[in-house]
Design brief:
By secondary structure, the protein is an alpha/beta fold. 29% of the residues lie in helices and 23% in strands. The longest helix has 11 residues, at 30-40.
Length: 190
């Protein structure tokens, strides 16, 4: 099974008031932490999904621009899935600094030919830290044609089509999926 990893960093960071990728977290910018986690998994490629190129993107990380006009994570995932040549895509959001490499490796280990893995917490999918098979590509591209940018209906459709299998997340692992959206989130967790 071959995997491409993508760091999703295309958000506007309105509530944060600045680019989350460059926020300092435990002495380093968030992007460094997240790229380090992805590198540890040794995917065939690492990509950055963003609205435009950024000065901090490492030379060995490819760039995938959001499909204009950006519709949030839907645009980034659709564009990345359309570009990948591997069997699966591992997505990781820039603003999930508590995610652990071991947990991402566990997700990768649960994927199978034609099937990805979607973490679920209390019945809600966590689509920004998941494994998508290339077979999800057409459903994401189709979703771009609708008016709804929410990922939850897309995920339900992929689950119903047996393209994604659900991984219930409970206990301490729930912390891995917490994201930072406001300045006070960084102060509380760093």
């Amino acid at each position: 099974m071959s995997i491409t990893a993508v760091l999703l960093a295309g958000g506007e960071s309105r509530r944060m008031g600045r680019d989350k990728a460059t926020l300092e977290w435990r002495g380093r910018p968030l992007w460094e932490w997240q790229i380090e986690k992805l590198r540890a998994l040794r995917p065939e490629k690492i990509l950055l999904s963003a609205r435009s190129d950024v000065s901090w993107r490492p030379a060995d990380v490819g760039l995938i621009l959001d499909v204009p006009a950006s519709r949030g994570p839907l645009s980034g995932l659709a564009a990345t899935l359309a570009a990948v040549e591997t069997d699966h895509l591992l997505a990781l959001a820039i603003d999930m600094p508590l995610m652990r490499t071991e947990h991402l490796r566990h997700l990768c280990g649960l994927a199978a030919d034609g099937t990805g893995v979607i973490p679920m917490i209390d019945g809600n999918a966590e689509p920004l830290s998941a494994i998508y098979p290339k077979e999800a590509r057409s459903i994401f591209l189709e979703a771009l044609q609708s008016k709804d940018s929410s990922l939850q209906p897309i995920i339900r459709k992929l689950i119903a089509a047996n393209v994604l299998r659900v991984l219930p997340v409970s206990g301490p692992a729930r912390e891995f999926y917490k994201n930072i959206n406001e300045p006070r989130d960084v102060d509380c967790r760093s």
